[in-house]
Amino acid sequence: MAVIISGKELATKKKNEMALKVQDYLKVYGRAPHLAVILVGEDPGSISYVKGKEKACQEIGIINTTIRKDATITEEQMLEMINTLNADDRIDGILVQLPLPKHIHSDKIIQAIRKDKDVDGFHSDNVAALYLKQKGIVSCTPKGIIEMLKSIDCKIEGKRACVIGRSNIVGMPVAKLLLDQNATVTICHSKTSDLASVTREADILVAAIGKPKFVTAEMVKDGAVVIDVGVNRNPETNKLCGDVDFENVKEKVAYISKVPGGVGPMTICCLMENTLECYLAHMEDKND
Ligand code: GUN
Known about the structure:
This protein is an alpha/beta fold.
């Protein structure tokens, strides 16, 4: 029976530490960090994510301004709004909740965010920085996964890691971070043949494929560490569930994260960390 890696508990601990730091920053810099979040439309998932971000900001003492816009907003209007936030010296971080309505090109919007305010780490300059091992903002979910592994003292160096999924937001960057920690990394996807033969070799298995109960007990190595990044609805119960058949897999592995309460809270926690990073860089820039 596996030990459950609680992203929720780890996030709470880290948020408490950040709250203390923010009190000190207030004394030194005279103002709190400020995160602007843009939410377009009425997608219930997006509304719920944004609420989670607002709550985390409140807990830590980060000022949060959520700008809600109707789905009819034009791309030009959005770009204008971002330019205003880019130029606003009191705003440290800018996040545009995705997905956006179809008539707006997300790439264009993300690229318009100043790279030093891009708390999501989605701007191509920040993505490039990760791949070139340069200083930049690392996206929140991959960063959270590495922090979860560190929290259990998981030695990454020399291990075989397998990532199922190759998205720009999770699969690719988490594979790169694991590689940078000297794991030997295999990236699998829906077209991988005999997937189980690959996943069974993994000491660290990261599932980010977006299919409920996709990872079964037969697919994991005894004693592996399994991180479930899935955010799905269980078709039977309509409840939130991950990519891993938790009840069966937990019997075989050493450590496992759960959905909900696993990677999700750590994504938000790392967003808060990134906001503090942007704020500190901003404040130190001004003192130069
Ligand atoms: N939609 C779902 N996850 C995310 C995220 O991490 N960042 C943004 N901006 N939108 C999302």
